[in-house]
Every structure is written in structure tokens, then in C-alpha cells.
Amino acid sequence: MNCIIPAQNTKVLSKAISALAKVGDEIYLEASRGRLKLTTLNMSKTVCAQCSFLESFFSSYDIKESELTKENKETLTCKLFMKSVLPLFKGNLEKKLDFLKIEFSTENDFIVFKMKYKFDQIVMIHKLRLMDLETLSIGIASSSGNNNLCASSSLLNQILSMFNLTDGEITLDIMSSRLIARNYYVGAASNPKLMRCEVKLGAGEFFIFDVKDETNINFALKPLRTVISFAETFNLQVGINFECGGKPLTLLMKNPTFEIHFIVSTLNPNNDAQSSMSSTSLPMSTQKTRRNLNITLEDQQALESENWDNVMELGNTSECGTNNNSFISMMNRANSDRSNMQRSKSNFYDKTSEFVVENSDNYLDIIPKSPESPRSKRIKLVFGRCYEPTICSPNLGQEIYGNSDSE
Predict the structure, then answer these.
(1) Which residues are registered as beta bridge partners of 174?
(2) pLDDT (tens digit, 9 = 90+) per residue, 357-402?
(3) Is the separation of the CB atoms in 232 and 174 below 8 Å?
(4) CATH architecture of the domain with range 1-138
(5) Which CATH code is given to the segment(s) 141-281?
(6) Taking the domains of the chain in order of start, what are their residue ranges?
(7) Can you tell me the distance from the alpha carbon of 77 to that of 74, in angstroms, rounded to the nearest whole number?
(8) By the 8 A CB rule, do 178 and 269 touch?
(9) Alpha carbon distance 264, 172 (integer Å)
(10) Helix crossing, 324-351 with 308-319: angle to 10°?
(11) Do the domains 1-138 and 141-281 sit in the same CATH topology, yes or no?
């Protein structure tokens, strides 16, 4: 394979490689008829980025047919270290180079980059050792989802400016006529250091807003920031293709000479919210008790500790007209036990300032009043001289020390 990239297109290639470097540590090169692909994958295999340069991107693009048909292949493939490729594309190459030439053959274990500079007719040759002759198969089409959005890079950049740089995820609630972007999802554990942000956008803000199935998706913000940064450099529109939460989302940028798309794994925040809410919510029996019964805490504990079997027996005998006084005495004894419990609790609260949790099965948290802080003696010791009188009436007009000057 021999291809020549003109100087004005070297900026696109360098920015594309820099974007791929933010995703993975290895770069896969695939040369086929009509296009050259650069692909990378992160370590956790949750983000895949691919840049496709069409034949019109090059001033010369040639692949030997014998290399393609030798092993019944349709592409020439190889793998390189990202750290070995990045140093070649630093700086403003479009102002320094006349052209960049890439040479690769299956018979060699290295790839050659030839840079022809404008001044002094300098040609710099870089030979990079290959890792392996293998390819990376994605298996996911960029237009596999049934929901499609398209917006300008400036609009998406304004949305990201509402979020903090420390935010790692974004949640999108996609409806038929609007989109809501959040840096959190409902039901997640609250973080006191996180400032919750929410941005609402109507369908008119997008160039394309084709939503067939309303859904919620959650994915990482890092690939989205990388895509928006690249799109702003060349004033490109960003397309978003997805199906639902839990299935891959595609961020797509197109140009007449090249295409770049990022495939990002997503989560369904509704499933995560249900699991987190079920672990933190109160039992249904406790919620019904607090909602339907308007009684005090002491009354509720007295009712729970009472033996209702004996009370029901006494109630049944009172209906027959017998032993009604013993039922009244039973209720009086319960009231006296409740008052004794209340007095013992009040005495306990006066002696301690710790939190008391009683009957954890009922989820009843009792928080007493904070005790008054004692007056500090250290303050009086340090600032004690400030409270002493500075002028004494008996000493007024009395000479305590004589003149220091002998004259």
C-alpha cells in the first residue's frame, strides 16, 4: 500500500490520531479498496473509535491487488503502538510539510512514514515496528439504532459547559418532542459534593430529531467531550444514533472525504434506579403506619408492646356485661407504663447527647436536642486582662515614677 496525503489534510489526520489516543493505547490500520481505516479500543472494551478516510482524502492511493488476493483477503491489516505514532503528528504539520507518504507491505514487519518538508528539501523517514498483522472487527453498524439526533458542535459544547469537568457520566431522557440532559439519574445515592445540573432542549434545537421510541440512556462523558472537541475544530455536525439504554450508542461525524464515529456502551438508568431505591426505601408496612396513623412516638411504642390477646379477651367479656372494671384497669396500667417510659426517656436525654435508635426493625430514629455547650474557661484565661479596670480613681493625680532626665 502506498498513499500520499497533501499538506492541507495532514491537520485532519493529526487531530484524528490525537482523538483516538484519548480512547486506546493501540491503533489498528486497515487498508482496503477505496478507504483507509484507523481503529482503537479502550482497555475495558466500552468505547470504540474508528476513522475512515476515503480515497478522495488522498492525492494518491494505491493498493497492490496481489497483496489482497494472496490470502483471500480484502484488507491489509496491522497493529501499532499509539505512543510510537503520536510523536510524528505533533505541531502544525500543514504549515511545515508538502506531503506525507505512508508505505506498508505484508512482507515487512514495519510501516514507513515519509515527511517531505517545504524548506531545504528535507525528507524525514520514520520506520515504526508493527505489533502484529491482525484486525479488529466491531460488528456494530453506525446506523443500527432507530432513534437519530443531529446537532451542531456549538450546541453540544454549550450543553457540556453547564456540567462540571469532574462529572464522569451523563444521562439523557429522550422524549418525542424534547431532550433532558442530566449529570445524575433518579434513585442514585446522593453525593453532597456533586452539584446537580439539568438542561432541557426542545426538538427545534436540533437539525434532526427523529425519536421513535422514548428511552433513557446513561453513558460516559469522556468520549462525548472528545467528539465535540474534534467537531468544533472543523465545524462539523454531530449525529447521535441509539436504540435504548443498555445498547451501544454511536456518535457520528461525516465529511465528503472522511468519517469518524465513536461507539459507546450505555446503561439503563431506570433499572439502576429501581435497584438503588429498593435498597434505601423504608418497608411498606412502616410507610403505611406513618401515613395512616396520626399518633405520637410513645403511643406507637406502647401499642406495639401491649399484649392484645389479653385485651381482646377482656373486651369480649365486657360485651357480655362482666368484668368491665378490669378492662378499664388494664388500660390505666398501659397508660401509666407509657408515662413512666416517657419520663425515663426524658431523663436519659438530659444526661447524654448521643443519638438513640430504638427498635431498628421499625426504623424509628430518635434524635434528642443538642446539650448546651459549657462556657470555656480558656477564653477567660486568655482575655482576662481585657476585663480588668484600666483606671483606678485613688491613683488619679498621684505621681508614681519620677522624671528619668536628671535636669
Answers:
(1) 179, 215
(2) 444 444 444 555 555 555 555 555 666 666 666 655 555 556 665 6
(3) no
(4) Box (3.70)
(5) 3.70.10.10
(6) 1-138, 141-281, 295-343
(7) 10
(8) no
(9) 14
(10) 150
(11) yes
